[in-house]
Amino acid sequence: MSSMTRMLTAKYDSYASRIERRVDKAQRRVSFLQGGLLRKVARQQIRRRKRSSAAGESPSAHVSGGGGLKAIRFAVDGDSVIVGPVHKGSLESAVQPTGNDTVPSVLEFGGRVKVEVAKPPNSIRDVWRWQIANPDEPIPDGWIRSFVISKLDDRPFMRPALEKSQDKLIEFWRNSL
Predict the structure, then answer these.
(1) Is the pTM of this model over 0.70?
(2) Which one of 25, 87, 101, 126 has the largest count of C-beta atoms within 10 Å of its C-beta?
C-alpha cells in the first residue's frame, strides 16, 4: 500500500467519524423536538371540564394541576422516543382497569374497568365522585363499598396527537444536518 493510499484512507475515516457524530447529534436533537411536540399536542387533546367525554372524543381531565391524565412525559432512549401518560395513584383509587391494563391504555383503546362505589348508609345516592375529589382521604367508616365492572369505550388522545403532528415530526429532519 502506498503512502498516498494510506493518507486517503485516513482522511476518509476521519470524515466518516465526523459525519457519524454529526448525524448522532442531529438525531438526538430531533428526537427531543419530536418528543416535546407530541407531549404538547397530547396534553392539548385533553380538556379540563366537569362533564365526562363521549365515546370517541378525547378524555376529560377532572383533576387540576399537574396530576391525572395531563401528566404526560417523554423520554429519548437511543434512537427512539417514548411519549405517554405517567401512572398516578390518585387516578386509580376509584377506577381500576381489569386485567393488566392501565387507566390511560383503557382510555386510549377501550376496555373494562372496575369502579369502586361508596354509598352512605341508608342512601341510594352513589358518591364515587366524592372519592375522586378527595383521593387522599379514606372512605368514611360505615359507608357501604362495592365494585362495579363497567365497559368503557375508547377515548383516544395519543393517536390523534400523533396524527395531528405527523407532518411537523417529519419537518424537524429538514436542514437538521
Answers:
(1) no
(2) 101
